[in-house]
């Protein structure tokens, strides 16, 4: 099953339009490819999409977007100006159908996939590269903030959308600048 665009996808895509021009972009966890397509339409110089689900390749083939089957960065070797991740961010829920939990569940607490992603992402960012990460008010954020600090990143909330049971956030994550 491919994750179909929803409120989270559209929120991230609306932000992405402002960041894509002339950028080399990696769309991690591409699903339907909405972020990769948005980046291309918004003037990205190069876009590659990846997903743990090999079915995503068929969705992207008709739009001529290069695809890499990868568990986060396991098959990624290049560096990028912008990495986009509409991560699975919800805590484990035993009621979640197994057909959709890969797309929505970020681990027992909801932050495990994001933490793994961030530990690997730094190696794939160009010097002044940026990460756009989608999270939820249901995602625990303390470990994420501590890891970002440890990795030398800071974050800004650049967009949000209130839904019935949660609020969605887009974080811009970038290297901390060193003060003189």
Name the features.
7 strands; 180 residues; Rossmann fold; alpha/beta; 28% helix; seven-stranded mixed beta sheet
What does this 3D model show about the protein?
The chain is α/β, with parallel strands linked by helices and 180 residues long. The protein has a single domain (7-175), classed as Vaccinia Virus protein VP39 (Rossmann fold). Helices cover 28% and strands 28% of the residues. It is built from six helices and seven strands. A hairpin with a 4-residue loop joins strand 6 (153-162) and strand 7 (167-175). Helix 1 (7-16) runs parallel beside helix 2 (34-41) and helix 5 packs parallel to helix 6 (142-151).
Largest β-sheet summary: 7 strands, mixed
* Strand neighbour order, sheet with most strands: 3-2-1-4-5-7-6
Which CATH-level-2 architecture?
3-Layer(aba) Sandwich
Radius of gyration, in Å, reads 15 Å
CATH class: Alpha Beta
Q: Which class do the helix and strand fractions yield?
A: alpha/beta
What low-confidence regions span 5 or more consecutive residues with pLDDT below 50?
99-103
Helix and strand pattern:
HEHEHEEHHEHEE
Distance between the termini: 50 Å
The total of helices stands at: 6
Annotated CATH topology: Rossmann fold
Count of domains: 1
Helix content: 25-40%
């Amino acid at each position: 099953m491919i994750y179909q665009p929803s409120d989270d996808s559209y929120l991230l895509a609306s932000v992405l339009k402002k960041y894509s021009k002339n950028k080399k972009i990696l769309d991690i966890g591409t699903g339907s490819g909405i972020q990769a397509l948005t980046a291309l339409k918004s003037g990205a110089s190069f876009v590659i999409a990846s997903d743990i689900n090999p079915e995503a390749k068929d969705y992207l083939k008709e739009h001529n977007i290069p695809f890499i089957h990868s568990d986060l960065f396991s098959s990624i070797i290049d560096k990028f100006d912008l990495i986009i991740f509409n991560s699975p961010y919800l805590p484990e829920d035993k009621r979640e159908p197994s057909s959709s939990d890969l797309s929505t569940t970020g681990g027992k607490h909801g932050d495990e996939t994001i933490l793994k992603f961030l530990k690997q992402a730094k190696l794939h960012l160009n010097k002044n590269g940026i990460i756009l990460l989608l999270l939820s008010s249901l995602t625990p954020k303390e470990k994420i903030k501590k890891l970002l600090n440890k990795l030398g990143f800071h974050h800004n909330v650049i967009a949000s959308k209130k839904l019935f049971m949660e609020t969605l956030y887009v974080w811009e994550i970038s290297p901390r600048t060193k003060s003189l």
